[in-house]
């Protein structure tokens, strides 16, 4: 079998047209109905966007820190590579869902461009780059997180661009090692899993290209120094100062909760081997890591079940890859192993390493965000499989048959994608309303429509409910209140300035100005007349409007809290005080 044809980096006219078409497809899948699919807004999306708004308008996040490296949003820190584009987005477009998700969509398109550049560079073949870009453009895994306003999607784009420059650096352009190292260093500020994955991968890169790096001399040394300087703040400093270390200890497979769960699972099998494994923490941890790791490489995660951690991480009961992409991936891995060039081994290394960080967390689940470093390695391998198959056809049957095969492959990929995205933009649009709390959005719209009809608007307490209140009702900069000592956001005072109050317990219902429009979980309160605790009078609860979401507990309802005055002699007896 002949060696693959080595193409130069100049694109032919049809390749330029195909490249623009793939980018257009990537842009369309990520921008179409961006503010309504997924339908609603997840807490992290709302929190990142709200803090971006606070920084854009006041220069401080909700914790009170001025232009922070790791802004604090709701319960966890966020990373600057994604956060500061979000600041620009909400500054230009306002605080809304489209602005919250636009940076993710743009990072997604950038990731597709990076996949093309990396495929062309690794395989020295523009056709391989085009195939990789197409597979990533239609990837359910990548598209969903390009439409979800959280930070993880920045990691594949930044990592891939950095790797392009590093490969170019060891191939005779050593000066490119420096910007490549800078981009690799920036991955540490995209998503926490990069703190482990990127150094492991770069160690493998250094071993494979040790001779080339030695020839690069001072450029390689400077690049390594730069990456180390960027890694240390995240690995040794920020990981602790942002309390990510405490989160890791709680959620990892070494944590107490996970260890108890693993122990009970092993003991339930009641065999000599499982009892032995269950007896020690080290063996329990090794068992948990093994099962997690294999789970990320399993057909269940990739093809049939997908993420098992959260409903917001994509459609339930569907894999993170299209079936046609999985077939190409299998072919690609076989060809990569048979070829065994440095570039091919590098890609195999990438595929073997991507589950490592995710496997250390949350035993028994597959988490599509923590494993997002698999992108675009899986698509690059699939692209290599496709290109090699077409080369075999060309060698056996001629160039015309190979071109026909390429056209048929493109049609199959697009047809497979069309079926999936018809489901995604129709059925999943409805299914996502519950996990993405669409009923809250509807309820806030209804509350705003009532204008001044009610004396006050209140919301039942929920953890971080202030995030939704302030996102859907952006305060003017003059309404943003902060603690005079720490500059931390005074959420209660800011909400009052925006015309809302948080009702922390049921006892506050009879203390609210009346009539009050009250947002709570559907079914939380039974309409009727109740004895007031705060005074000798009575209050009434009426259901104003419900916002049901199919097959979801995340539903909201609006209630009217009103006065009743004196109870008439013939009126029903007031219900017992429930506050």
Secondary-structure map with pairings?
Blueprint (H helix, E strand, L loop, with lengths): L12 H19 L11 H16 L13 E2 L2 E2 L2 H14 L3 H27 L2 H12 L2 H7 L7 H17 L6 H10 L7 H15 L1 H7 L1 H24 L2 H8 L4 H14 L2 H7 L2 H16 L2 H6 L18 H17 L2 H12 L1 H5 L17 H21 L1 H33 L6 H12 L6 E5 L4 H8 L18 H7 L2 E4 L12 E6 L6 E4 L6 E10 L8 E8 L16
Parallel strand pairs: 3-4, 3-5
Antiparallel strand pairs: 1-2, 5-8, 6-7, 7-8
Helix pairs in contact: 1-4, 1-5, 2-3, 2-4, 2-23, 3-4, 4-5, 4-6, 4-7, 4-20, 5-20, 7-8, 8-11, 9-18, 13-14, 17-18, 17-20, 18-20, 20-21
* Average predicted confidence as pLDDT: 90
Gyration radius over CA:
27 Å
Q: Which strand order spans the largest sheet, edge to edge or round the barrel?
A: 4-3-5-8-7-6
* Low-pLDDT stretches: 1-8
Total beta-strand segments: 8
- Beta-strand proportion: 5-15%
Shape: globular
Q: Please report the number of helical segments.
A: 24
Descriptive terms for the model:
8 strands; six-stranded mixed beta sheet; alpha/beta; globular
Provide a concise account of the structure shown:
The protein has 579 residues and is of the alpha/beta class. Helix content is 58%, strand content 7%. The protein has helices at residues 13-31, 43-58, 80-93, 97-123, 126-137, 140-146, 154-170, 177-186, 194-208, 210-216, 218-241, 244-251, 256-269, 272-278, 281-296, 299-304, 323-339, 342-353, 355-359, 377-397, 399-431, 438-449, 465-472, 491-497; strands at 72-73, 76-77, 456-460, 500-503, 516-521, 528-531, 538-547, 556-563.
